[in-house]
Amino acid sequence: MTESLRPSATERLDQALGRIRDPKLEGGKVFTTLYEASARREAEASDARIAAGKPLGPLDGRIVSIKDLFDVAGETTRAGAAVLRRQPPAAADAPIVQRLRAAGAVIVGKTQMTEFAFSALGTNAHDPVAGNPHDRSRAPGGSSSGAVVSVVDGMAEIAIGSDTGGSIRIPAALTGAVGFKPTSGRVPTTGAFSLSSTLDTVGPIARSVVDCAMTDAVLAGQAPSPLAPRPQARFVVARGRLFDAMEAEVTEAFEAGLDRLRRAGLSVEDGSLDPSLDALAALDRIGGFPSIELGATLRDLGVDGLDEVDPKTRVRIEAGAGILGVDYVRMQRWRAAAVAAFAAAMTDDTVYLIPTTPIRAPLLASVADDAGFHHANGLVLRNPRIGNLLDTPSLSLPLPVPAGALPVGMMLIGRRGADRPLLAMAASAEAALARV
User: Fold this and answer.
1) Is-catalytic flag, 181?
2) Which Pfam family is one of this chain's hits (predicted)?
3) What is the dihedral of CA 387, 391, 392, 394, to 10 degrees?
4) What is the mean pLDDT of residues 380-406?
5) Does 2 have pLDDT greater than 60?
6) Which of 142, 252, 370, 409 could cross-link with 114 by S-S, CB 3.0 to 4.6 Å?
7) Are 211 and 244 in a shared domain?
């Protein structure tokens, strides 16, 4: 919708707040903090700028939610964890919050998340969990769970999340949104609770690639600009083990989506990521970066005991504590080699395609016990985490599915540093998927 046709920021904020308070929805579970007074001031200021013909840019007046792991001055950053609620308040806004405010965004509130951002289904033993908007008895995906529900349920137009192993793209796939993970270092992670200093990234969830691209530019400190077409784009389907254990409905939606890309004239061919997966498997045989680095983060914060931590989370932190320093250094070296090799084998116009997750949103009841949780959590993480380990920009697009069916996502993986080309090719794929 163009700026001239879009209702005012104040009107859209009222609509968002109305949906947050709608008893048929779950706004009280989606948001941990509402900024109604400051959001109204921001919306009114935006309307005044736009009326004067002096907008700050395309994010001016957009209704935005932020995940509850970003620092806001004067508030304790809880990151979904009971053990962090006694931490001192943040001294300053995180850089990405500062950039959002400078771009005129209307920040409506902070959203619920999984504990420490260390799980992918959206469940949290310390906070109520908002159900998937397509079926409230199902998981919304995580760890940016409240973020994605805020967008899909119309409580925000854009949400800012974090992605360490798929925490933006997984909830986007399970709820039918667009989620973008940038190359590491493109967007500052300072002022965000750190699950993994090696793998953490910050990015947007929205209803379109254009909104994700515009928000990514602001978060990266760049001037938003149109996405330039990529006429030489190659879409390579990464056949192989990342297609294992797929639900029939995921397979059907993914293959039908490929047919739409081909009919639209996009270049689609088969390939494989299995050589890179072999290199990453060597890392997994030692351990995982989040398990090791989260323990270090907690120790830096003075958190010595894990009694208040959900046992599902604690067991992974304790596993990281057993990794030798020499093995952690080996993991860093092997990952650096895998990242360099993957980037060298690609071009800026190459995109790999895989299902974002091999399953659709599971029932919350099915992941309540440890066995069900760890099984489903591992499945939804399997494909997205490749983008973090190989340090690539990566985006999940919703695929067309039958009316009433649960959402399915298609993931696009680009070359390291080629964030804007990936977003441009994602916009082409999005348009092709929308064609009948």
Assistant:
1) no
2) Amidase
3) 40
4) 98
5) no
6) 142
7) no
Largest CA distance in the chain: 61
Position 4 scores a pLDDT of: 55
Residues in the chain: 436
> Which entry of 65, 167, 194, 428 is annotated as an active-site residue?
167
Would you say residue 224 lies in a domain? no
Q: Letter for the amino acid at 285?
A: R
Q: For residue 67, indicate whether it is catalytic.
A: yes
Overall domain count for the chain: 2
Average pLDDT over residues 200-229: 97
Residue 3 has pLDDT above 60, yes or no: no
Q: Which domain holds residue 410?
A: 234-434
Active site residue 150: no
Active-site residue, from 143, 145, 150, 428 = 143
413: CB partners within 8 A, 6+ apart? 238, 351, 352, 353, 354, 386, 387, 390, 392, 393, 394
Which candidate, 12, 36, 17, 37, places its Cα nearest to that of 27? 17
Per the CB < 8 A criterion, the answer to whether 342 and 275 are in contact is: no
On whether the CB atoms of residues 43 and 106 are closer than 8 A, the answer is yes
